[in-house]
Design a protein that fits this description.
This protein has five helices and no strands. It is an all-alpha fold. The protein has a domain of 118 residues: de novo design (two linked rop proteins) (Up-down Bundle), CATH 1.20.1440. Helix 3 runs antiparallel to helix 4. The longest helix is centred in the first third of the chain and has 100 residues. The termini are far apart.
C-alpha cells in the first residue's frame, strides 16, 4: 500500500505538472498573441504618423513654393516700377540739361528714356495682370501721370527750341501748368505702388 500511495502521489504530481504546463502554454500563447497584436498596432500607428508627417511636409513645401513665387513676382514688379522711374528721371535729366544749355546733346537721356518708358509700362502691366483691380488701376493712373509729365517736358523742350528760354524755365519752375501739379500726384502714386 505504500507503493500504491507513492504511485498515487506521483500521479497527482504528474497531473499537477501537466495541468501547470497546459496552463503555462495557454498563458504563453495568449501573451504571444497580445504581443503580435500590440506590434501590429504600433506598426500601423507608426505608418500613420509617417504618412501624416509626409502630408504636412508636402503642404509646407507647397506653401514655401507659393511664397517664393509671390516674392519673385513682387520683385519683378518692383524692378518694373524702378525701370519706369528711371526712364522718367532720365527724361527729366535730359530736359533740364537741354533747357539750361540749349545743347541738343543733352537730349540723349531724354530720348533714351522716352524710347524705354513704353516697354517699361508694358512690362509693369504684364506683371500686374494677375493682381487686384486696385493695383492695376494704380498702374493706369501712373501711366496717365507719366504721359502728362512727358507732355510737359516736350512743351518745355519745344519752347526752348523756338528760342523761348524764359518761358520754358517758367513752365518747369512754376505750377502754372495744370499738368505740373500732377507730378506730386505721380509721386504719391509711385509710393502706393511700391508698398
Amino acid at each position: 500500500m505504500v507503493y500504491l500511495c507513492t504511485s498515487e502521489r506521483q500521479s497527482d504530481t504528474s497531473l499537477a505538472l501537466l495541468r501547470s504546463s497546459v496552463s503555462s502554454t495557454r498563458k504563453d500563447g495568449a501573451i504571444k498573441m497580445i504581443r503580435k497584436i500590440a506590434l501590429r498596432l504600433v506598426a500601423v500607428t507608426l505608418i500613420a504618423f509617417m504618412a501624416l508627417n509626409a502630408y504636412l511636409a508636402i503642404n509646407r513645401l507647397r506653401l514655401i513654393q507659393r511664397s517664393a513665387a509671390l516674392t519673385l513676382e513682387s520683385s519683378t514688379i518692383q524692378a518694373n516700377i524702378s525701370a519706369v522711374l528711371q526712364a522718367l528721371t532720365d527724361m527729366e535729366t535730359g530736359q533740364r540739361g537741354y533747357l539750361l544749355t540749349g545743347d541738343s546733346d543733352y537730349l540723349l537721356p531724354y530720348t533714351d528714356g522716352k524710347n524705354r518708358i513704353g516697354t517699361d509700362f508694358a512690362s509693369l502691366r504684364a506683371g500686374l495682370a494677375n493682381r487686384t483691380e486696385q493695383e492695376r488701376s494704380i498702374e493706369s493712373k501712373l501711366e496717365s501721370l507719366a504721359a502728362s509729365k512727358q507732355a510737359e517736358m516736350e512743351r518745355s523742350i519745344s519752347l526752348r527750341q523756338q528760342g523761348y528760354r524764359r518761358r520754358a524755365f517758367n513752365l518747369v519752375d512754376t505750377n502754372e501748368d495744370p499738368q505740373r501739379k500732377a507730378a506730386s500726384s505721380r509721386d504719391s502714386t509711385m509710393r502706393e505702388l511700391q508698398t
